[in-house]
Amino acid sequence: MKVPVDADVRRAIKPVICYPNETLPKPNMEIYRRLSERLTKTDETIIPPREARCFTVSAGSVFRITSIDGPQVGDLNLWNSKNLSECFYSGKTRALHGTHLSLGERMWSNFPTLRPMATIIEDTLSWYGIDEFGGAVHDVIGTRCDPYTGNLLKGGHYHHCCHSNLTRALADHTGYSLHDAEDYVHDVLNVFMCTGFTRDTGQYFMKASPVRPGDFIEFFAEIDLLGALSACPGGNCASEHSSDATHCYPLLIEVFAPDPKVLEDWIFPSVNGYDRTHGNL
């Protein structure tokens, strides 16, 4: 391979942010703070190790995911509870916010709605930042562990990976067949997972999550939500996933109703304003 004489010059070109996000609608963190001070718990769901469960959250409510018993990561899907074709869009969320999410950042829905579905209003791991390896917590780069990639790389048929867990949970909740439910399962927010890209090869890596029992991440539901959370078979993802060998622990989901007075003037997000003519006027 011939290296061009201006190779170093080309590499030295400074990067440009693809989607400057200064004009994104800013979440009102003061309202979220006041809202969090007056919450009434309305529901909870325990996610067993290597399984997934669905839960519902009304617009304006709060849901919290908590590590209990031991360090555990989770794979989160979100849908509009009234229309499952509107779901979390991890790729655009990554483009708008970055590879990992934390306080004040949002989970955005797919086209054509492209609106906030949930906003992170508390995160006990926000202190972690980016470590010396380039690792950070709560990623939107990993797709979810799945039986197809497992079969491709190692052979066999492992059924308790997050993709299959989410599929079973959605089928159980909706009454859909497994095949129909699978069509709605999508790329995830990897809750509590610590990941990044290697500097030398650019490969996606994982490392032991810094999560400990009692740590939690809390979301404000911007629209009516159906969620599904899988307690990943990788446990804290220190060494492997899609395995029955790793120690795994349950996760807790709690749903809270706010004091209605706090949200009296709240404006919930409408669908994206693009006219969808695509130039065909």
How is this structure best described in words?
This protein is of the alpha+beta class and 281 residues long. It has helices spanning 7-11, 29-37, 90-97, 147-154, 162-174, 178-182; strands spanning 39-47, 52-57, 62-67, 74-80, 83-87, 106-108, 116-123, 136-139, 189-197, 204-207, 216-221, 225-231, 251-258. The strands form 2 sheets. Strands 2, 4, 5, 8, 9, 10 and 12 form a 7-stranded antiparallel sheet that branches. Strand 9 and strand 10 form a beta hairpin.
Features of this protein?
281 residues, alpha+beta, 7-stranded antiparallel β-sheet, 6-stranded antiparallel β-sheet
Number of strands: 13
Q: What is the arithmetic mean of pLDDT?
A: 96
Note the main sheet.
Answer: 7 strands, antiparallel
Count of discrete domains: 1
Tally of individual helices: 6
Distance between the termini: 49 Å
Rg for CA atoms: 20 Å
Strand content: 25-35%
Q: Which structural class do the helices and strands define? A: alpha+beta
Unreliable stretches? none
Portion in helices? 10-25%
The outline comes out as globular
Give the ordered list of helices and strands: HHEEEEEHEEEHHHEEEEE
Quick recap:
The chain contains six helices and 13 strands.
What's the SSE blueprint?
Blueprint: H1 7-11, H2 29-37, E1 39-47, E2 52-57, E3 62-67, E4 74-80, E5 83-87, H3 90-97, E6 106-108, E7 116-123, E8 136-139, H4 147-154, H5 162-174, H6 178-182, E9 189-197, E10 204-207, E11 216-221, E12 225-231, E13 251-258
Antiparallel strand pairs: 1-13, 2-12, 3-11, 3-13, 4-5, 4-9, 4-12, 6-7, 7-11, 8-9, 9-10
